[in-house]
Each structure stands twice: as C-alpha cells, then as structure tokens.
Write a structure and sequence with these properties.
By secondary structure, the protein is mainly beta. Helices cover 12% and strands 38% of the residues. The protein has a four-stranded antiparallel sheet with strand order 3-10-8-5, with no helix packed on it. A four-stranded antiparallel sheet has the order 7-6-4-9, with no helix packed on it. The protein has a two-stranded antiparallel ribbon with strand order 1-2.
C-alpha cells in the first residue's frame, strides 16, 4: 500500500511539472477481483488578485492609439499556455484577426483579436491579471 501511496505522490509531482490538472490511476490485483481507483484533480495556480482589485492601465495619462479592451470580466493571459511564448510583445506587427491575448471566464478561454493592422505600442496588463469589462489590454498604432 505504501508503494501505491508513493506512486500517487510521484504522479502528483509529475502533474505539477507538466501542468496536468487531472489524472486517473487504477490498480488491479487478483485478476481484477480487487481494484483501487484514484482520481487526482488539481486546480492550476493563478496569481490571486486582492479582493476588489481591477486591472488599470499602467499610465495615468490618456492612452494614445487604438485600444483593445476586454469584452468581459475574467483573467487576461498574454500567452496560449503557461511558459509559452506570448502572443505579442511591444513592437510586434499585428494584422486584423490576429489573437493578441486571451480572457478566461468560467473556464473558457476567449481570444482577444486585433481589429486593425498595426504595431503593438503598449501592453497594459500583466499575465494572469483580473480584468473587468472594457479594461484596456493592448494599444496598437
């Protein structure tokens, strides 16, 4: 039994390393007469924002350029998955229809797409930031 526990602990560490959130383990003995089934489920770590925190643009001055805003309340992500290359960076050329960020709401990742051709002038949120409806995310010129 302790070897099964060690297996579960090792699988848990592996889940953390690989970013896996769910895993099923099953052990059968005596030709299937004895069966032990374990389901591991973890929530991905997301930097928690203080209660009542809403992302604000990094600058207090009026934003110049075409601003892409969040269409919903959620969490903004600048890359398709943790550790991946960001969709865009300051200076990136974008075309209308290019995905520049994601906003996750109710476990659904919604792409934020550029609606113009241009160059990314400023990124106004950090990865994993809680955003409200109409929060400015990216400025394009």
């Amino acid at each position: 039994m302790s070897s099964f526990r060690a297996t579960v602990e090792n699988m848990s560490k592996l889940m953390d390393e690989m970013g896996i959130t769910e895993l099923d383990l099953e052990r059968q003995l005596l030709l299937g007469l004895y069966r032990k089934h374990i389901h591991l489920s973890k929530q991905q770590a997301v930097a928690a924002a203080p209660v009542g925190f809403v992302a604000q643009p990094k600058t207090d001055t009026k934003i110049a350029g075409h601003v892409l805003k969040s269409p919903m309340v959620g969490v903004a992500y600048l890359a398709p998955e943790p550790g991946a290359k960001p969709f865009v960076k300051v200076g990136s050329a974008v075309k209308a229809g290019d995905t520049v960020a994601l906003v996750e709401a109710m476990k659904t990742f919604n792409p934020i797409k550029s609606d113009i051709d241009g160059v990314v002038k400023e990124i106004l949120v950090t990865d994993g930031t809680a955003v409200e409806f109409d929060t400015p995310i990216i400025v394009i010129e």
